[in-house]
Amino acid sequence: MERMAAYHYLIELWADSDMGNNITIGSLSELANDTPMPGSGSTSKRQSIKLDKIGPRGGRGGGVRDVQVPPYRLLRLEIHSKYTINGISFSYIGSDGSVHHESWGGGGKYVPYTGRDGIVFEEYPIQLGLTDYVKEISGTTGAYTDHPNIVRSLKVVTFKRTYGPYGATDGAGSPFSFPVQGSARITGFFGRSGDYLDSIGVYIREC
């Protein structure tokens, strides 16, 4: 499992971001202070996070997927899709203060990726900035090839912009939505996957 100190990751994100000119070291320090630090045995308020687990939506194919540790801050999300949702990958800072990575379903190896059915899937990366967060995940579920019910499309709404929809865009299938209220945010995912993303649910952190 690849692990990286969360503070160092935030420093790199700040340095590489086009927001770097608008964010001071002081505000970066505040963000880091709001993030659990690795190796700490403290039971402080930062380590005691409250998460709601909502969902999943979709079918019961594939295997169960879940995060390794409670997710505190979502850093990056990548959607693999063409005519349906082939899979997702994401990185997050856990309650242990380390960066964790997950990749579920098909794709996530190279671009473009040829799926089991021979269709080329694309990868759509969503890099969250230091002051951005996911406030809604929505999409549709339904049948695809020989799969009776999988995630067919996904749309991601952050504090700053909307991504997608990705996957099936013909409006077919059953719609679903995981919105958050106020300052709450989506910090991670769970669900099921095999050759495709069979179902998806979200972790929501109250702030």
From TrEMBL:
Lineage of origin: Eukaryota, Viridiplantae, Streptophyta, Embryophyta, Tracheophyta
Q: Which PANTHER family match?
A: OS05G0143600 PROTEIN
UniProt cross-references to SUPFAM superfamilies, sorted A to Z: Mannose-binding lectins (SSF51101)
Q: Tell me what this protein is called.
A: Jacalin-type lectin domain-containing protein
Q: Residue ranges of region Disordered?
A: 32-62
The alphabetized UniProt keywords are: Lectin
**What molecular functions are annotated in GO for this chain?**
carbohydrate binding
Q: Name one Pfam family in it.
A: Jacalin
PROSITE patterns named in the record: JACALIN_LECTIN
**Is ATP-binding tagged as a keyword?**
no
Could you tell me which residue ranges the Jacalin-type lectin domain spans? 51-206
Natural source organism: Miscanthus lutarioriparius
